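Q: Predict the bound structure with OOB.
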Amino acid sequence: MGTTSVHGAPAGTPDWPGWPPEAAQRYRDAGHWRDEVFGDLPARQAAARPQAVALVDGDRRWTYSALEADVEVLHRSLHRLGLRRGDRVIVQLPNRAEFVLLWFALQRLGAVPVHALPGHRRHEIAHLARITEAVAYAIPDRHARFDYRPLAADLGADHPSLRHTIVVGDTGGRTGFVPYETLLDPQAPAVTPPGPPVAPGDLALLLLSGGTTGTPKLIPRTHQDYAYNARAAAEVCRLDADSVYLAVLPVAFNFTMSCPGILGTLQAGGTVVLSPSPSPGTALELIEREKVTITAINPPLVPYWLRESEDGRRDLSSLAVLQVGAARLADDLARRIEPTLGCRLQQVFGMAEGLLNLTALDDPGEIVCSTQGRPVSPADEVLVVGRDGTAVPDGHVGELLTRGPYTLRGYYRSPELARTHFTEDGFYRTGDLVRRLPTGHLSVVGRVKEQINRGGEKIDATEVEEHLLAHPGIDSAALVAAPDPELGECSVAFVVCAGPVPGTRELASFLRERGLAAYKAPDRVAAIGRMPLTPVGKTDKNALRERARRADGRA
Ligand code: OOB
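A: Predicted complex:
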């Protein structure tokens, strides 16, 4: 896999560009990048604290030594199945222990998990299979009323590279599907790695971006950069071996995985508790039962959590930190968190591409409630630029550009995106409009990228528009964001139709049949006579957004 520079710096591979050698050397000299790979973590912690609890899923508990034992057995079985170093594996599992165990087993093998979200459907998964040429696909049998097995069977038929489907639960008698339980076979023979060991600069995982260009983009993350991401976040959150992290949002999401999330907690020797659902009833019960010290949610969940905790029925005294991020948290809502929940609020502004901003636990209240934090690493470089690309003074709004020790230098197998998404000197164009305070704190005020942030779930307008145009009744379509009291933003489809205008329900089922994740269906549909155009003849999305806001988007 990969080419290595003279200093052992990851120069990337033909599939993805790495960091320039001098930057890599700097990150290593500063101690940000260390000689560590994720596959070793369970064994290291099992040696240091064998009896400490690492993982809790309902009534099932793993000490670090039990975690290590299961990861090793899974690793051997995956090897026996034929999985090898560098192989990509699409992992689409909900918040269950199997995700964590399988993830570390893949790491030990040097295989690369591709982090699909539970809500993704045929369209998204087929795209991932095509780009990554994954050899395996891990699914639950059913989750949230969806049966993943027919999806996996269809996919296997269309993608010959996909040799194995691993099912957590019931295979439904389908031949060729591998039941997860059979991989926990202690008889599986030990693995003698045929080649050099997995290296810190190797590709460790592929995350998905919200996407702004029609198809979800894949983000290459290496062991050393992702481990640093988790460690730097854990430091700001002051995690230690006594920390108990509750995973509420999907485990595959970068926020839950490593900001500091599951990885930051396990690196610190703490305990990870998995919540099977984000509902406040379930989560608050787990906080009380497991004495959770830190958890992470998105803004739409906040009002529900506040309401659920107001009656004081639950003892939440263990909870020290509530992280809120993935979409803009309204300042007023932010102010209600500490008095109601009795814990510190931490705002989190992150992205799968890298840069992570957190408010500090000892930042003044006003900063915590009105900004989205500061970059977690002293090596993060941040520029706020105006339309002409030159830096604007602090306090002024501009686009956020960034580069640093855990921010990508290019997407996976997409060299064509280099020019549009990166500057010549390697800064990633986030597409976010921010204002920077003299203290370095960033406040997110909007976005230049064509993305709708539906309460933290990112929707790529172009992708959905392409599907809408496939509807026989729609001549022209444009998807824009409109303000929404609960989600922050919802999606409004403006359509030009010669005949009857399809309603939201019809479009939702039309898009579902095309294999699109349900959260991408427009929340509202508005018919218009013709699309407003900009002077250069493009759809005038600003005019449509204004219209959606004024008319409340209703047709
Ligand atoms: C997180 O990651 P992604 O990749 O799903 O989305 C990134 C985008 C950002 O570029 C920004 O547009 C938006 O989501 N965003 C926020 C925000 N946090 C993310 N916008 C306003 N305020 C915030 N606090 O969403 C993500 C990754 C790691 C940690 C947390 C969130």
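A: Confidence is low (pLDDT under 50) at residues 1-9.
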